[in-house]
Amino acid sequence: MAVQGTSMEPAVEDGDRVLVRRRRLRRVKVGDIVVLEPPSHGPYRSAASAGPDGRIWNVKRMAALPGDPLPPGVAGEGPVGPGTFAVLGDNLADSIDSRHRGLFPAERLMGVVVRRLSTR
Question: Is the entire prediction scored with pTM above 0.85?
Fold first, then answer.
């Protein structure tokens, strides 16, 4: 998939292409770069980031899995609940992530970025 935006710089840059392997939440680790579908409504959605199937995808870093403490800035109390996860962008100043959207349900996870294919 093609990356649009600067929320994951410098790990992944605007214009890069990434190879993604589908993964279930139980096979993801904190620190993995993941691809997920943002909420179906609300702000921060852009048709410019839609894939060929019309779905919109975001690239972020896995910050917390079920049972982990909530990352700083993510609303809520206690650990991350079952079947949910938190993500953050590497470029925190330019990232819409779990600090704005909260926890994501496991069904929103597409997979893990296994390789960056820079276009430069």
Answer: yes
Q: Cite the beta strand spans of 27-108 per DSSP E.
A: 33-36, 58-64, 84-88, 104-105
3-state class (DSSP) for residue 111:
strand
Beta-carbon contacts of 21 under 8 Å, excluding residues fewer than 6 positions away, are 111, 112, 114
Which of helix, strand or coil describes residue 40? coil
Q: How far is CA 96 from CA 5, 7, 51, 88, 100, in A?
A: 11, 8, 19, 8, 6
Query: Which two tokens mark 21?
Result: 């392997």
Per residue in 81-118, pLDDT tens? 999 999 999 999 999 999 999 999 999 999 999 999 87
Phi, psi of 117 (to 5 degrees): -115, 85
Q: Which residues pair with 90 in a beta bridge?
A: none
Q: Is 39 exposed, middle or buried (0-12, 13-18, 19+ CB in 10 A)?
A: middle
